Amino acid sequence: MAKGWLKAIADTPEIRSTVTVVGLVDVNPAAAKALAEEFGLAEVIIGADLADVLSKTSADVVFDVVIPSARHYVVSTALAHGCHVLSEKPMASSIEEGRSLITQASAAGKVHAIVQNRRFISGIRRIRRLVESDVLGELTAIHCDFFIGAHFGGFREQMDNVLLLDMAIHTFDAARFVADKMPVAVYCHESNPRGSWYAHGAAANAIFEFSDDVTFTYRGSWCAEGANTSWESQWRIIGTKGTLLWDGADNFKAHKVAGAEGFFRPLDVVPVPEPVDEAQTHGHASVIADFLTAIKTGAKPETVSNDNINSLAMVFAAIESARTRQRVTL
């Protein structure tokens, strides 16, 4: 993931003109050195100890790209050294750790935001605009399907709750953004299907209750071979006047009721609007730009940690529901 972040910095002029990479930290310094060479970062300080590198560089910002179990230490250390922090998702390995980091960021007076890059894509921005326009009426339900046979190797294949903790949060966060509602409760069933190459929890089905009686359902698997969906899931968004279908890529179909007669009411095609701001559709680069703007202006970044913890709460509530086989409130 560090390579993706460095590429976003290098390929985005407004970020490249603002950010100077001064250090790379890795438990394996040789990996950091190879990355520095790949991106022509000849002057950076490389080390295995974050506190030491921060002391040597006097950095202003830390980009946290570590595995979730190391996140609390990395973010706490960065905040203690007076750095703003942008972290990969999930923001913490538990709700308690997430709350701890929010408290530390507030006490330090630093910006702490999370990379939810999936909401910074054109499709999500477009369906959010359509929902906001009220052309589909009042939102009643969002249904998302995610089925991909992904052979990562490495730490993911050893994780507990791998789909919910490492991937589903993208769709959970995007659904929360599109709906503009708060998650209230969830019932979730988790499984590790026959043939799975993961240690635990490669599949899950969750029913979330959002505020204002909106339902959000998620069906997903990371070991479903033969018919991959988009990484962004397939979406069905239902309002009181119509429905939007999105394949997670480039195909949108939206219709609204156009009459009051007939067993099936006549329908009109609804155009799906383009994003308000094209600059908000570039994934990691857009998240980084939003974060840097917040540092400069004092505005809250869209994925600030004290809001993003609501997406994290959806994950852990789903995990708790799967464990107890009970409805869990958030």
Summarize the main sheet: 9 strands, mixed
Distance between the termini: 30 Å
Q: What's the tally of helices?
A: 10
Unreliable stretches (pLDDT < 50, length at least 5) are none
Domain Gfo/Idh/MocA-like oxidoreductase N-terminal: 17-111
Domain GFO/IDH/MocA-like oxidoreductase: 124-244
Protein name: Dehydrogenase
Pfam families: GFO_IDH_MocA, GFO_IDH_MocA_C3
Summarize the structure in short.
This protein is an alpha/beta fold.
How would you describe this structure to a colleague?
- By secondary structure, the protein is an alpha/beta fold.
- It has two domains: 2-110, NAD(P)-binding Rossmann-like Domain (Rossmann fold), CATH 3.40.50; 121-275 and 310-329, Dihydrodipicolinate Reductase, domain 2 (2-Layer Sandwich).
- The protein contains ten helices and 14 strands.
- The protein has helices at 2-11, 13-16, 29-38, 50-57, 71-80, 95-108, 122-133, 162-179, 284-297, 305-324; strands spanning 23-25, 45-47, 61-64, 84-88, 112-115, 139-147, 183-191, 203-210, 214-221, 234-239, 242-246, 252-257, 267-269, 328-329.
- The strands form three sheets. Strands 13-12-11-10-6-9-8-7-14 form a nine-stranded mixed beta sheet, with helices on one face. Strands 3-4-5 form a three-stranded parallel beta sheet, sandwiched between helices. A two-stranded parallel ribbon has the order 1-2.
- β11 and β12 (252-257) form a beta hairpin.
- The radius of gyration is 21 Å and the shape is globular.
- The two termini are 30 Å apart.
- The model has no long low-confidence stretch (mean pLDDT 95).
